[in-house]
Design brief:
Elements lengths: L1 E6 L14 H23 L7 E12 L9 E10 L4 E8 L5 E13 L5 E2 L3 H5 L28 E4 L16 H4 L15 E6 L8 E9 L2 E8 L5 E7 L1
């Protein structure tokens, strides 16, 4: 089952951005995933699940071209597979001419809103999504094996503002390109890299102090988001 939305009011586009940003693309995909969930839950008349929430554990986004800011875009998503605790979801975005300009694959899980612990996925519920195991948005892609203790450049310490927090009371998944901006030199914007891989390990809470460390190797930028003490890893981001 493929869920599709055509969107004209692009979220999180900043006034100075001439082209669609990565944060906007990630948010569009997040919203169409929620739309897909609403279609499935309404159709299946499942039980009330207000005590649980879907969270992203990893994204891989590839942008082939960027529509001009304000251009309507079509976003599609589908479930590809699932295990006891993870769902695998793919995406593609097309411009008004039907040309695919971005694609992504992702890993999701559900948590208990009160305890923040992972929940098992109900096979009957997941079957309602109509998984398409042979349909890959990024054929052959595998998430990187990250070494969080790798050597780092001096980091940037900052306090997380409420503007980055979502309804799940942590930093919103699509806000990470904006969150890491202070670690980049002027003229390099993580919002506009062609390839973005994000792996989330620990949620980041409002008012929390975090350390953002960046290193560059062979044209790729590696960003670690850690706690203020530099020990626990919240996320690792690879940009190309």
């Amino acid at each position: 089952m493929i869920a599709e939305q055509t969107v004209r009011d692009i979220p999180f586009q900043k006034s100075g951005d001439a082209f669609l940003s990565n944060q906007s693309i990630l948010e569009l995909m997040t919203r169409v995933a929620g739309y897909h969930e609403s279609l499935v839950e309404n159709r299946s008349n499942g039980p009330d699940r207000c005590g649980s929430a879907w969270v992203v554990q990893a994204w891989k986004l590839k942008v082939f071209s960027r529509p001009v800011s304000g251009t309507p875009v079509t976003v599609r998503t589908w479930s590809r597979a699932f295990t006891r605790v993870q769902g695998f979801r793919d995406f593609e975005l097309t411009d008004p001419g039907g040309e695919r300009f971005a694609a992504a694959t992702s890993v999701w899980a559900t948590i208990d809103r009160s305890t923040r612990s992972l929940l098992r996925l109900d096979p009957l519920r997941m079957e309602s999504y109509g998984s398409e195991p042979e349909r890959f948005s990024l054929p052959g892609f595998r998430f990187s094996r990250i070494l969080p203790d790798a050597a780092q450049s001096p980091g940037v310490l900052l306090t997380v503002g409420d503007n980055l927090i979502d309804e799940n009371a942590h930093v919103h998944n699509s806000a990470y390109p904006e969150l890491i901006l202070p670690a980049f030199p002027e003229g390099i914007n993580p919002e506009f890299f062609h390839e973005t891989e994000i792996q989330y390990f620990r949620e980041i809470l409002p008012g929390q102090q975090i350390l953002i460390e960046r290193t560059e190797k062979s044209g790729s930028h590696y960003v670690w988001i850690r706690d203020a003490g530099g020990t626990a890893v919240h996320a690792v981001i690879i940009l190309n």
